[in-house]
Structure formats: structure tokens, C-alpha cells
Design goal:
The structure is a single chain. The protein has about 230 residues and is an alpha/beta fold. About 45% of the residues lie in helices and about 25% in strands. Strands 1, 2, 3, 4, 5, 6 and 9 form a seven-stranded mixed sheet that branches. Strand 1 and strand 2 form a beta hairpin. The longest helix has 20 residues. The protein is globular. It starts with a helix and ends with a helix.
């Protein structure tokens, strides 16, 4: 009776975690692996609080959880699911840097899309997947809608953009120069600069490792976990 109550309490706690943070612990009894599932959805919220009607991922929730996963000896790997429009540049890059620095094996899966600052997040893991209909929008850095009015402002923007392109090229197969070309493309978006890559296009450009779905992502992560303990 006591075991049943404990199981029900653990199940209720996990449901609350999924509902509140979009996270869950996945246990595979056959492989004896425990995987932490983390989702990056909607807009990445930084220092400014977004309207309550917006679907957001809060970086102040994500960073402590990543630290907890890193220190938890009961967790063997991280699966990152992405469907994000982008958001706060500094916060998104901070999350990406933290994921990239983890010792636990990690795999990402781009679902609906991983746009803007979602691109560094998608490539921050050890291996990356994108579904056939998944999209990635690559465009120059924008902090707000104001016109650049001073050389120092332009240099600041350029510095941030260099940090992002350097991170992406350092964690994928795309060259920094090619990434900048895609960012400044004028022939695809009617009223904007940039490039939209869909599924296989992201793989061909070297941003993402492979086209696949949840089964592929989990199988790859199990393989990485097995390799890490040998």
C-alpha cells in the first residue's frame, strides 16, 4: 500500500513538472538509462518579463535545472526538444553555452522550428536532429527596433553577432563565413535579411547533423551514453 502511494505521489510530481516547466525524467528499463527531457518552446525570456499571454521559456528556470542535471548521478543524458521563435539573445546564448559545457551526453531535436537565437541552442548538444518539416530562420542580430545611431552601437551589434556565429560554427559543421552569408541573404525574405532552412536544408548546410524524429534522437542518445561509460 505504501509503495502504491509513493508511486502515485511521484507520478503527480512528474505531471506538475511537465506542466510547469515542460520537463520529465525518461527511464528505459531495458537500457537502464535515465534521460532528462528538457523543452525550449515559445520565446526565450530574458531580463524583461514578457506578457502573460506569451508562451515562454525562462532562462532563470533553465540554468539551475541544467546545473542540477549535470550534478545528478542518477541522470545519464539530456534530450533537448526545440520549438522556439528565438527571444533574448544573451539569455539564449547563456543557455547554449551551459549545455555545450555539460559532461553528460546530449542530443537536440528541432521540431516546429528553432529560429534566431534558437540556432545556437540547437547545435549546443553533442548531436542534433531536425524533423523533415522543421525550420531554422537565420538572420542578423536585433536587440530592438531602433535605428542604429552611433558607430559604437553598430560595433556592439557586430560583437554580439560574432559571438553567435563563432559559437554556432564551433559546434556544427558550418563555416562562420557561410553562416554570415545566410544571415545577410536578401533574396529569400521579402522585408528582411536572412535565410529559412527546412529539414534536410539545415543538414546540407552543416548546421544540423541529421534529419530524424524522437525515436532517432533517443536511439542516438542511448548510444552516446553507452559510449561514455565504456
Amino acid at each position: 500500500m505504501g509503495d502504491q502511494i509513493e508511486k502515485e505521489e511521484q507520478s503527480a510530481e512528474q505531471m506538475d513538472t511537465i506542466k510547469e516547466y515542460g520537463e520529465a525524467e525518461l527511464k528505459d528499463p531495458k537500457k537502464e538509462h535515465t534521460i532528462h527531457l528538457m523543452t525550449i518552446i515559445g520565446e526565450i525570456e530574458g531580463h524583461d518579463v514578457l506578457p502573460g499571454t506569451s508562451k515562454t521559456t525562462k532562462y532563470e528556470h533553465v540554468l539551475p535545472k541544467l546545473a542540477e542535471v549535470e550534478e545528478d548521478h542518477g541522470v545519464d543524458g539530456l534530450l533537448l526538444l526545440l520549438n522556439t521563435m528565438g527571444g533574448d539573445v544573451e539569455s539564449g546564448l547563456a543557455i547554449a553555452e551551459m549545455i555545450a559545457s555539460m559532461s553528460k551526453p546530449s542530443v537536440s531535436l528541432v521540431l516546429g522550428g528553432s529560429h534566431s537565437i534558437g540556432v545556437p541552442l540547437a547545435v549546443s548538444t553533442d548531436y542534433s536532429f531536425i524533423v523533415p518539416t522543421g525550420t531554422m530562420v537565420i538572420h542578423p542580430v536585433r536587440l530592438n527596433g531602433l535605428t542604429i545611431g552611433a558607430p559604437q552601437t553598430y560595433e556592439y551589434f557586430q560583437q554580439i553577432q560574432d559571438r553567435i556565429t563563432g559559437f554556432v560554427s564551433g559546434h556544427s559543421r558550418i563555416k562562420q563565413e557561410r553562416l554570415e552569408e545566410l544571415m545577410l541573404n536578401t533574396g529569400m525574405l521579402t522585408k528582411d535579411l536572412g535565410t529559412v532552412l527546412v529539414g534536410a536544408g539545415a543538414v546540407e548546410e552543416g548546421l544540423i547533423d541529421e534529419v530524424g524524429g524522437i525515436r532517432d534522437a533517443l536511439e542516438k542518445l542511448h548510444t552516446l551514453i553507452d559510449s561514455s561509460v565504456q
